[in-house]
Amino acid sequence: xxxxxxxxxxxxxxxxxxxxxxxxxxxxxxxxxxxxxxxxxxxxxxxxxxxxxxxxxxxxxxxxxxxxxxxxxxxxxxxxxxxxxxxxxxxxxxxxxxxxxxxxxxxxxxxxxxxxxxxxxxxxxxxxxxxxxxxxxxxxxxxxxxxxxxxxxxxxxxxxxxxxxxxxxxxxxxxxxxxxxxxxxxxxxxxxxxxxxxxxxxxxxxxxxxxxxxxxxxxxxxxxxxxxxxxxxxxxxxxxxxxxxxxxxxxxxxxxxxxxxxxxxxxxxxxxxxxxxxxxxxxxxxxxxxxxxxxx
Amino acid sequence: xxxxxxxxxxxxxxxxxxxxxxxxxxxxxxxxxxxxxxxxxxxxxxxxxxxxxxxxxxxxxxxxxxxxxxxxxxxxxxxxxxxxxxxxxxxxxxxxxxxxxxxxxxxxxxxxxxxxxxxxxxxxxxxxxxxxxxxxxxxxxxxxxxxxxxxxxxxxxxxxxxxxxxxxxxxxxxxxxxxxxxxxxxxxxxxxxxxxxxxxxxxxxxxxxxxxxxxxxxxxxxxxxxxxxxxxxxxxxxxxxxxxxxxxxx
Lengths: 296, 250
Prior knowledge:
The complex is a heterodimer.
Chain A: E1 16-20, H1 27-34, E2 46-47, E3 50-51, H2 56-62, E4 63-66, H3 78-88, H4 93-106, H5 122-133, E5 140-144, H6 152-169, E6 172-177, H7 180-186, E7 189-194, E8 197-202, H8 204-210, E9 214-220, H9 226-236, E10 242-244, E11 247-252, H10 255-268, E12 273-279, H11 283-295
Parallel strand pairs in A: 1-6, 1-7, 4-5, 5-6
Antiparallel strand pairs in A: 2-3, 7-8, 9-11, 9-12, 10-11
Helix pairs in contact in A: 3-4, 3-5, 5-6, 9-10
Chain B: H1 2-20, H2 22-44, H3 47-50, H4 54-72, H5 74-83, H6 86-91, H7 97-126, H8 132-160, H9 163-180, H10 192-200, H11 202-214, H12 221-246
């Protein structure tokens, strides 16, 4: 069975690149190959300027890695983990401690210094994982599905930390995710992978255009409003609206700018609505769109 | 330097983890004492047939049992680290992969040494007699065997990557060692056919060698053959465990 097939891409220094794909697409295998954890059966790669096959130790010295399962041991404290990983990266005990203190402060872990990792919240633990991956000042960091299992607040906090990584340290980040909104919010460029193959490569806006239009969902306040709503929506879009109860759905390619115009028309016609929502394509819809384009 | 430093870090992590688990420390220290207190009197009933103080036979046997079976089970801890992502995080550092293995193994040897010394001390308290130099030789053989089976246990865990399969296989190996190597009862009292099967197992020769060493027969062929098997197993186990650690994930 082939997990990753003929995937080829380059990442420039300082870029945040998202590896986007559904479960089983080959994201983790790609990450594991690039971090020296899995040996590719064929092909070649250079990571941080080093050849993956012949300079694996140099690659490991230049990268940081956070696996989707985490990195920290349940029964080690925050301070111990940071110092230990600094030393495994070749720092002296004194330098490892100094670096650990700096990172603990940056990632709001200083108050948790003596807490064992097993007692930390999901968000705190993720911050520790990221800090551990940075103890040796790597040039490139791999984050494998970093927000899986996090609550919305922790997720937003982690996004801020990832952006900060690039903005303050000039780090290159390759992160895998199966959340379209996460990839959109964080990444300069997206690599879409499906069935082990790279099916799209470009900035988020371009990838989203390839994935098809958003869906505009307007819920009428009452049945009496439906005819008027349908008239407005037919004028505003080329696609035919679909009605289900009080809800009207229509494919809407205009984005938020055009949405304001539609709302103004609804308002001008004095139509009462319960809610208006512009929903991006779901990942399933997006992959269907992209894979059908690929097949064509 | 970095390989030594990595070994020290791994050793320290294991030690810290054990010391935090107070229950483990208590059970680990009590187990050898319980064996001697509860099984020794049973063996005492056959003292005439065995021709020796039962504790003189039992203590070296228990040391070998701990070195083989107890050591193989260290693989469970490694599988927990593998499943929690801890092992991957360590393997993405530039630390030499054999240093990641040797740090863990060194800790296991220290653990076995502490438990073994308690076992020997309690054995003396129960009436065991042993030659001092021979006892040291036998004890060192046991520690080498511990290191070998720990490396094998780690290697096997990384090969199988599954706690259930690992448990089944380790039990399948442990049972014949326990029953056929004369760990608890010397095979000299067993029927002929059982002795023939037993003589095929390397662990039988190691148990016999360690017992001979404790008895002070350092120059005997039994000690030499036991030592030879121990070194042979260690070479194979270190090479297997080291390769499993060095190899990539899949």
